[in-house]
Amino acid sequence: MSVQYHDLSAPAAERDWRQAIRRGMRGRCPHCGEGRLFRAFLKPVDACEACGEALYHQRADDLPPYIVITIVGHIVVGGLVLVEKFGDWSMGMHMLVWPLLTVVLCLALMQPTKGAVIGLQWALRMHGFGGSAPQVEVQPAASRTGGQ
Ligand SMILES: [Zn+2]
After folding, report:
1. How far is the CA of 55 from the centre of ligand 1 (A)?
2. Which InterPro entries match (predicted)?
3. How far is the CA of 56 from the centre of ligand 1 (A)?
């Protein structure tokens, strides 16, 4: 006869963050990889249509734009400097290429980047992705009496 111990405080199984990021970048549920992650360009679904994983509590917030700005800034500024150093473009060509490239790259990278951030949050069990209800942040009430 054997005795089995069930430790409820044991850590949950580790999630593969690389796979979750890849699935998020493809616009798929980070849990199953089948259901859609977005219902609009940057609006995530409330729950996965394939596996039911709740996705409403994601908090990507400003991180995807910061990542996109960093990537696009390096490409555009680096390209502009290289063309200035080695090329012979007119000012009109610069005014056409760099703003257009900036807009196209930002639009192309924004959704995959947001999906990747949501996938990472899911893999790290952030913001309720660990199974527990998300913590509600309570802000102290502003004093109306002016310190009295
Ligand atoms: Zn799913």
Report:
1. 9
2. DUF983
3. 13
Q: Which residues have a Cβ under 8 Å from the Cβ of 54 and sit 6 or more positions away? A: 46, 47, 128
* CB-proximal residues (5 Å) to ion ligand 1: 29, 31-32, 35, 48, 50-51, 53
Residue 98 in domain? yes
**pTM of this prediction exceeds 0.70:** yes
Cα(85) to centroid(ligand 1), Å: 49
User: Residue 100 is part of which domain span?
Assistant: 17-123
Question: Residue 78 Cα, ligand 1 centroid: separation in angstroms?
Answer: 39
pLDDT in tens, 79-103: 999 999 999 999 999 999 999 999 9
CA 73, 79, 83, 85 dihedral sign is positive
Domain contains 89: yes
Indicate whether 106 belongs to any domain: yes
Residue 129 has a pLDDT of 82
Residue 79 lies in a domain: yes
